[in-house]
Specification:
CATH architecture: 3-Layer(bba) Sandwich
Number of helices: 10
Number of strands: 21
Strand content: 15-25%
Number of domains: 1
Distance between the termini: 28 Å
Bound molecules: flavin-adenine dinucleotide
CATH superfamily: FAD/NAD(P)-binding domain
CATH topology: FAD/NAD(P)-binding domain
Low-confidence stretches: none
Radius of gyration: 22 Å
Structural class: alpha+beta
Largest sheet: 7 strands, mixed
Helix content: 10-25%
Length: 491
């Protein structure tokens, strides 16, 4: 196929990509978005995605078995499904694939970081502007809402969270409600059986067939409405090259088995690489190492972190955690101000449709360790390397919290779920690799190039202290406003 030229190309359709595309399109700028995953349009029959406890091929990206942190007994034909796991020597990193990126698979928790922490990790960004303007804007655009305390206290679907909360309080910890993009009015209707049950009937991580306000319902829907955005699903960008006038991309159009149907070159004047922390870092590290973007600086591929993620499980919770569980988390144990062991631990559901007497937690710690992406010429692959003891201290931080919960309430580590009941290998929050102010300027413009940007999670310095998509969205809003105002004027 001939090279196809576009003024602006955005790689990816996750948070950073969607914000950039919408804001450009609103100004009349035509945008082409290339997404390696599938489009997952909602259907009236609510059959787009598979359920958590009976996943089929739609659940998983090009693997013949399911890939959750535990209980992977399901096998199927390889398919371009919605959840992917990238395994490195030390870590298992989960990412979403499809139009909407991580918003299709994530738990929807929408949390603004504590201001003091945000200021400490990104001191060069004007925090007042972020907290007065861009975080509220991101929350509004993402349709963030909160569970009504009355529903939370009375529904059987949040018994798991109430039990974990009561145990946390008994052990002297504070808990907080966590906002979400799942529509809680819809969830209350689900509980009354007035509408199709999604979160209340085992849907999350492989997609929600209703209720969740993922990017395809918010930013991307608004972007498509402008008629200035075209999205091409199943277009996987292989390489990025600088040219005299802009950029050239080598792209594979793949089928649902992952095979290349055809390859095609694209060119553009403005390129936004928004393939997520893992995808953007991979593309840019490869481009630097193979000389197709030789002027990128040494910071490209550096500063990657897992947002301090650690998972833990506790068994023999004598109050029980309920056979009915909503798949959407709404509460966290907030011990972030603990000087020695700061932890923000979300109370996660384990919706097995039977009483398991188990509490599950996704904890975020201040893990200061960072990894690095590097290119291997022999395999033509980019690998993420972290030290062997990458999560050791983070695990210790979470362990002291779990020990106290167990000591005060009874319960033991859930060793059937994870070795030692606690796991520092699992990463849901990959961040960094092209850190703002280091690989890029303070607005995501890659140093060494013009009209080359990233707007996604690769900009964050390995940590946000809370679930990251609100921060990614708010920073993207801030950056794209500046880029549109300054870079498109005379070009
Ligand atoms: P992404 O959303 O990852 O989007 C990148 C897109 O680029 C993807 O669609 C990908 O397919 C595409 N892409 C990659 N490479 C290429 C290529 N070469 N060519 C074409 N396309 C490409 N965060 C929260 O804040 N709250 C939560 O509750 C939460 N829960 C999570 C639960 C799970 C199971 C997972 C996996 C993540 C969760 N996260 C959560 C994290 C959150 O989803 C991510 O931080 C967020 O999606 C990152 O946004 P992004 O814009 O950086 O990129």
């Amino acid at each position: 196929k001939e090279t196809e030229h576009h003024r602006v190309i955005v790689i990816g359709t996750g948070y950073g990509a969607a914000v950039a595309a919408l804001r450009m399109a609103e100004k009349g700028i035509k945008v082409l978005m290339l997404e390696m995953g599938m489009d997952w349009p909602a259907s009236k029959e609510h059959r787009t995605f598979s359920k958590l406890i009976f996943p089929d091929k739609r659940s998983t990206w090009l693997k013949s078995h399911s890939i959750l942190p535990f209980a992977n007994v399901f096998t199927f034909k390889k398919y371009t499904g919605v959840l992917d796991r990238i395994d490195t020597d030390q870590l298992k990193v989960y990412v979403g694939r499809g139009v909407g990126g991580g918003s299709l698979v994530n738990g929807g928790m929408a949390v603004v970081p504590k201001r003091a922490y945000f200021e400490s990790i990104m001191p060069e960004i004007n925090a007042a502007e972020m907290y007065d303007k861009y975080f509220p804007l991101a929350n509004r655009m993402l349709k963030v809402n909160s569970i009504s305390p009355r529903f939370f206290e009375t529904t059987p679907y949040y018994k798991f969270a109430r039990t974990a909360r009561d145990q946390a309080h008994k052990a002297g910890y504070k808990t907080v409600f966590v906002p979400n993009v799942y529509d809680f009015d819809y969830m209350e209707k689900e509980s009354r059986k007035e509408v199709y049950q999604s979160a209340l009937n085992g849907e999350v991580v492989y997609g929600n067939n209703a209720g969740k306000q993922s990017l395809d319902k918010t930013y991307l829907a608004a972007a498509m409405k402008t008629k200035n955005v075209e999205i091409r699903p199943l277009y996987s960008v292989r390489s990025i090259h600088s040219t005299k006038t802009g950029y050239k991309l080598e792209v594979d159009n793949i089928n649902t088995s992952g095979d290349t149907v055809f390859s095609q070159d694209f060119s553009c004047d403005f390129l936004f690489v928004c393939a997520g922390s893992m995808g953007t870092s991979e593309l840019m590290v490869k481009a630097k190492a193979t000389g197709t973007l030789p002027a990128l600086n040494q910071e490209v591929g550096e500063g990657w972190g897992n947002n301090g993620n650690v998972m833990a499980g506790r068994n023999f919770i004598k109050q029980g955690t309920g056979s009915k569980q909503s798949c959407i988390p709404t509460m966290a144990i907030d011990d972030w101000d603990n000087k020695e062991h700061p932890v923000f631990a979300e109370i996660s559901p384990m919706p097995m449709k039977m009483e398991t007497w188990t509490s599950l937690y996704l904890a975020i710690t201040k893990n200061p360790n960072r990894g690095k992406f590097s290119y291997n010429a022999l395999t033509n692959k980019v690998n993420l390397k972290v030290a062997e003891n990458f999560s050791t201290n983070a695990i210790a931080d979470v362990k002291q919290l779990m020990d106290k919960l167990n000591n005060e309430n009874g319960g033991t580590y859930a060793r059937l779920l994870f070795k030692h009941g606690i796991n520092g290998e699992i990463c849901y929050h990959p961040l960094g690799g092209c850190v703002i102010g280091r690989a890029t300027d303070l607005y995501g413009r890659f140093k060494g190039y013009e009209r080359l940007y990233t707007c996604d999670g690769s900009l964050l310095p390995g940590s946000t202290g809370v679930n990251p998509f609100v921060t990614i969205t708010a920073i993207a809003e801030r950056n794209i406003e500046k880029i549109i105002a300054e870079d498109f004027q005379n070009y």
